[in-house]
Structure to design on (592 residues):
């Protein structure tokens, strides 16, 4: 019942008018000419609309089944997966040495949004593989890379990330899975992992599990964790598949959403594993991939909001109820379409303004990752590290909220399965939980990232906003609608950071009680900054007479809405932060 159209024009605007990628000086970005990116995005859009989106409901209704140890994915998933592989999409940003196309992460993020909007559960199979590819690519030996990466890039083998166990999710120091060293240099891996996405399925010939485990005798806690490659089928020297390894799927989780993705209990019964990276340095290996993985989940969050908005908008133009209070807009009909009503407008504007701002923020984050990886730019790396918990936490919280707003646009139809909006709500919900819950993201932001480089990175961010405002203050249209609100919001952010500095040292609860608000305050400032830049690009393009004037007018009006209606939330978040720990910590445990 739902449909999906890739937002190619909006992505093109962000890539070329706002981020101005082909002249941004990042190695490899000069290839990203507008015609080229348009062709790639349109092709991805076709696959998303015609193949992946029609399977979204099928996946939700059928779910996955475990039959004699084999997980059966929903009807049509395997054929669609083969099409994704044939198109070379799996290795879009992977190294050409292993068969990838060597495209920037930025372009992959655009394609990621398109595929995830179309079918989040389906896209998780290749999403998890990409995480495993990155782990091996970054930390594996040459031999490990040669053995696993070409097949993973072509998509005939997939990958997983195995961290969680029944007794540990957030606190990985509690991991019990054991890795016993063997004489031949391999390890015997024993233990149980739970909730492993794409842990077992019928779409690829082999599954390469990346598993966190402890080598006996190592340090306690997170310092004693190592990372291992554990293939489902052993790989012979000539690259062919050998015998089945001692790893199996012990069950499938029944869950609220993403039914088309298999969430597995994985049992390791003395399975053969290969150490990847240094012994006891598994957490460090995981951390180097975290910026990219968390940005990926942030993209998942707003993507569900984006597709939900498209469908809510179509409904609002079609459904007739009541009359426009200022005069009938559909006098020949029995009533006016609900989009005439201010409250429905508010609802749709919230969805649109968030989604477009989020897209720009995520693509800026992806550009920073490319700049840090391709130019070795330490400042970009530090900045994206600072922004990562915001990209993950804010974009998924607000992305979920956007799906609920879209559901509300449909009234009762939004609650029924027939219209499909409720699936977006259910699917988006997990993005706030996995890859580190959003509460943990906020602790990372306040506890670790604010102090990054002795506080220089966050000061650099404040300076970035300040100099942007100063540079553009002469532009009257930009100043009133965009720069003044951004200045006020940025002042709230700096005020909140100062509160933490002055009070958090004496009592950490003063900082941690406000961390969630701080993450949202930060997110709003980032989106405000994005909207100011988008408005500027739209004004410039309009003045130059290039492109579609109606598109730019819409952009400016949507941005004005965000600045006027969403950005003032920074004042509320600051007030909550400055109320301190006392209201949060007032009750004894027994009083709850
Ligand atoms: C559908 C699905 C797919 C998943 N896929 C994978 C996968 O592929 N691989 C994998 O390894 N894992 C996966 N997970 C696991 C997921 O990453 C964890 O659920 C998540 O990290 C949270 O851990 P937990 O559920 O054990 O919650 P807990 O750690 O028990 O936390 C419970 C609550 O307490 C809070 N909390 C915990 N510690 C603190 C603290 N110190 N300060 C403040 N608050 C705290 C948390 O924010 C949370 O709200 C998946 C989970 C699901 C449901």
């Amino acid at each position: 019942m739902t449909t999906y159209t890739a937002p190619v024009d909006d992505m093109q605007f962000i890539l070329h008018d706002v981020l101005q990628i082909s002249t941004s000086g990042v190695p490899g970005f000069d290839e990203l000419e507008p015609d080229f990116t348009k062709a790639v995005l349109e092709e991805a859009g076709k696959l998303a609309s015609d193949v992946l989106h029609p399977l979204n409901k099928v996946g939700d209704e059928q779910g996955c089944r475990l039959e004699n140890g084999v997980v059966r994915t929903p009807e049509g998933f395997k054929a669609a997966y083969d099409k994704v592989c044939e198109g070379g999409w799996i290795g879009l940003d992977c190294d050409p040495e292993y068969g990838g196309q060597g495209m920037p992460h930025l372009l992959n993020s655009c394609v990621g949004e398109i595929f995830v909007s179309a079918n989040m559960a389906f896209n998780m199979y290749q999403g998890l593989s990409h995480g495993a590819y990155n782990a091996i690519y970054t930390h594996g030996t040459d031999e490990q890379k040669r053995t696993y990466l070409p097949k993973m890039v072509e998509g005939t083998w997939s990958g997983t990330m195995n961290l969680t166990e029944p007794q540990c999710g957030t606190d990985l120091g509690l991991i019990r899975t054991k890795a016993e060293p063997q004489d031949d240099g391999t390890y015997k891996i024993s233990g149980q992992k739970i909730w492993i996405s794409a842990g077992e399925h019928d779409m690829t010939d082999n599954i390469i599990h990346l598993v966190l485990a402890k080598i006996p005798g190592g340090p306690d806690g997170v310092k004693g964790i190592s990372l291992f490659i554990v293939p489902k089928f052993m790989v012979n020297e000539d690259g062919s598949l050998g015998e089945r390894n001692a790893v199996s799927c012990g069950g499938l989780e029944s869950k609220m959403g993403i039914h088309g993705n298999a969430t597995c209990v994985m049992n390791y019964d003395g399975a053969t594993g290969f150490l990847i990276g240094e012994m006891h340095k598994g957490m460090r290996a995981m951390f180097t991939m975290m910026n990219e993985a968390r940005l990926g989940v942030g993209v998942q969050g707003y993507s569900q909001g984006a597709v939900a908005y498209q469908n809510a908008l179509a409904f609002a133009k079609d459904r007739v109820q009541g009359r426009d209070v200022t005069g009938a807009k559909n006098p020949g009909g029995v009533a006016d379409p609900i989009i005439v009503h201010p409250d429905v407008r508010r609802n749709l504007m919230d969805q649109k303004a968030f989604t477009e701002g989020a897209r720009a923020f995520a693509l800026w984050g992806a550009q920073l990752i490319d700049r840090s990886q391709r130019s070795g730019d330490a400042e970009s790396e530090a900045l994206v590290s600072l922004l990562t918990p915001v990209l993950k936490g804010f974009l998924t919280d607000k992305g979920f909220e956007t799906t609920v707003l879209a559901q509300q646009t449909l009234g009762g139809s939004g609650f029924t399965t027939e219209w499909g909006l409720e699936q977006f709500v259910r699917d988006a919900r997990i993005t706030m939980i996995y890859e580190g819950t959003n509460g943990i993201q906020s602790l990372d932001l306040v506890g670790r990232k604010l102090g990054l480089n002795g506080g220089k990175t966050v000061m650099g961010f404040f300076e970035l906003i300040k100099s942007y405002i100063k540079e553009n203050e002469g532009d009257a249209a930009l100043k009133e609608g965009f720069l003044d609100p951004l200045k006020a919001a940025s002042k709230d952010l700096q005020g909140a950071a100062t509160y933490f500095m002055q009070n958090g040292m004496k009592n950490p609860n003063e900082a941690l009680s406000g961390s969630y608000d701080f993450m949202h305050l930060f997110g709003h400032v980032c989106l405000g900054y994005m909207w100011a830049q988008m408005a500027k690009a739209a004004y410039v393009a309009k003045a130059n007479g290039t492109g579609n004037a109606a598109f730019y007018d819409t952009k400016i009006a949507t941005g004005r809405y965000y600045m006027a209606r969403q950005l003032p939330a920074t004042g509320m978040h600051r007030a909550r932060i400055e109320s301190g720990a006392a209201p949060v910590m007032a009750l004894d445990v027994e009083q709850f």
About this structure: The first strand starts at residue 65 and ends at 67. The chain is about 55% helix and 10% strand. The pocket of flavin-adenine dinucleotide is lined by residues 161-164, 169-170, 195-197, 255, 263, 430, 433-434, 436-437, 439-440, 443 (CB under 6 Å). The CA atoms of residues 405 and 411 lie 10 Å apart.
